[in-house]
Structure formats: structure tokens, C-alpha cells
Amino acid sequence: MAYNLKQAAQKRERFTGGHRMCAGCGAPVAIRQVLRALKEEDHAVIAAATGCLEVSTFLYPYTAWEDSFIHSAFENAGATISGAEAAYEAFKRKGKIDYETKFIAFGGDGGTYDIGLQSLSGAMERGHDMVYVCYDNGAYMNTGIQRSSATPRYADTTTSPAGRVIQGKQQPKKDLTEIMVNHSIPYVGQSALIGNMKDLYEKSERAIYTKGPAFLNVLAPCPRGWRYNTPDLMEVSKLAVETCMWPLYEVIDGKYAVNYKPKNKLPVEEFLKVQGRFKHLFEEKNKHLLEILQADVDRKWNRLLQLESM
Question: Which residue among 231, 244, 248, 307 is least packed, with the fewest CB closer than 10 Å?
């Protein structure tokens, strides 16, 4: 179905206001848009790994979730939601259930790239009819802004501090989207919070209504960890896309499609300079690190374009 902003905005909220997520956080914006892609008549079972999203939206006896919700441990959101899906399928076979239910898991990068990777990988490999959505904010934000494998190279975090000897995290960011592609699942998408969020809505709809396992990786800026001005959430997200630090693309049954190609690809420093976590890179002694980051982004972008053409 073609995206219609007015119709999407008029859908009922499945993720309500009144939660305790930080102002300017990308995660609740992403989750609200993902859930808007559900058909009105469909019920959903949601699992969330421990993290910012869970602790701020489900404080007993209060919840921001309108659908069935399971708080899972940090490491097993993939196992939890795939188990629920397996039970649902068993009940359907026995004729005990006759309504449609969708199964969606949410996890931050700590609970997805790192601690939860084993259960996510297992769920994808087994072929459950489910969607796993990672809201990637680039660190363990809930527990004090410690680096994760999703933290970009040279970012300043509490466990990879920028100082006189070491300039932030030394390792490149793990490419989890490509790891999921290599599970040979029907649908993988990478999106961000930009414009009217048409891209995120359409990818969410495809992921939810594709039979079998699907994975969505959504960039979700964090004002505390990234240190940008709270009102600049959408601008930061846009810069990530316009610099190709975070390309928008999807892989459907193994076929790559790049969903947005900047007419004037911006230098990576445009994305970095609005964030306090990269402040040290603009000192004269560290300018060569910007060149390393730019070369890395260019290499990955060119590879993505090649994959699309194959």
C-alpha cells in the first residue's frame, strides 16, 4: 500500500505518550512509527530487551504499550519473541486461535549487537515469523554511556574516553545489518528518522507483513550520549543519512536496494561536528582521524552501490 502521511498519522497510537524516555531521544519516535505500520485490526505481541526503552515505558503498574507486552532480559529478546510465536503457531494448528497476531521485538544496540546477538541469530536461523527491531543509539546509554560494538570509531564514551593517549573507541562499528543479511532471511532493512518518515513506515510494513523472519536496524540518536541539542534530533538523523554514515537500504530475498542516494553527499564531519562525543576530533592533532573516518564511509558506500548493481 502506498504511504499516506495523513492516514498514517490518524492511526491509533499503540505506543502512548506519558512514558519516561528523554526529550530528544530517537527511540520512542522510531517505535511509534514502526507500530503505526500495523494494520488496525491486527493484534501484536511485543517483547523488549532490558534497556532505556523498557525501563522507561513499563514501570509497573504503568505501561505505554497498547498491545501485549513482554519484558525480556537483556540477552534473550529474540528467544522470547520467537518462543511466543512458536506457541501461537501451535495453538493455531490445534484450532484454539483464529485471529491474526504479529510478533515484534525491540532492543537497543547493547541488547542486539552484543549481549542479545546469540538469541537473535538463533531466532533468525530457525525461521520464525517475527520482526526484530534494533534501535541503534550507539552505546549502553541506560547504564551510563558505555561503548558497545555499535559505537562508531573514535566516539568518546565513559569506557572509551578521549584523552591524551587514546582518542575514543579504537574499533570500527560492527555492521549488524550485513550480519543479518548473511542469515539469508526474507527481509532486512536499515532506516532512520528523517523527513515525514516514509522510509521507516514502508520498511516497517514490509518487515511486519513479510512471511518469515525480518530485521530492521533503525538509527535512534541519544541526546545524552551523543551530546547534541535536544531539539536537533531530526537534523542529526538527517546528517547521518546525507553523509552516508547511515545509508538507507533494504535487502529483499537477497536483492539489495539503496532507498536514498544524496544528490550532494556531505563530508562526514558535518555529522560529527554537531555531537559532543566527537569534539576531540576537531583538534588540530586529530584531523587525520577525520580522514580515516571519511575513507571508511566512502568505502562502505561504494560497496553498497556495487551490491545494488549486482
Answer: 231
Mean pLDDT on 278-301: 97
Q: How far is CA 202 from CA 42, 129, 186, 206, 283, in A?
A: 17, 18, 16, 6, 41
> What CATH number has the domain bearing residue 94?
3.40.50.970
pLDDT band of 279, cuts 50, 70, 90: very high
The whole-angstrom separation of Cα 162 and Cα 67 is 42
Other C-beta atoms closer than 10 Å to the C-beta of 300 total: 17
What are the pLDDT digits (tens) for 81-94?
999 999 999 999 99
Number of domains in the chain: 1
HEC string of the chain? CCCCHHHHHHCCCCECCCCCCCCCCHHHHHHHHHHHCCCCCCEEEEEECCCHHHHHHEECCEECECCEEEECCCCCHHHHHHHHHHHHHHHHHCCCCCCCEEEEEEEECHHHHHCCHHHHHHHHHHCCCCEEEEEECCCECCCCCECCCCCCCCCCECCECECCCCECCCCCCCCHHHHHHCCCCCEEEEECCCCCCHHHHHHHHHHHCCCCCEEEEEECCCHHHHHCCHHHHHHHHHHHHHCCCCCCEEEECCEEEECCCCCCCCCCHHHHCCCHHHHHHHCHHHHHHHHHHHHHHHHHHHHHHHHHHC
Structural domain range at position 282: 5-309
pLDDT, one tens digit per residue, over 173-191 is 999 999 999 999 999 999 9
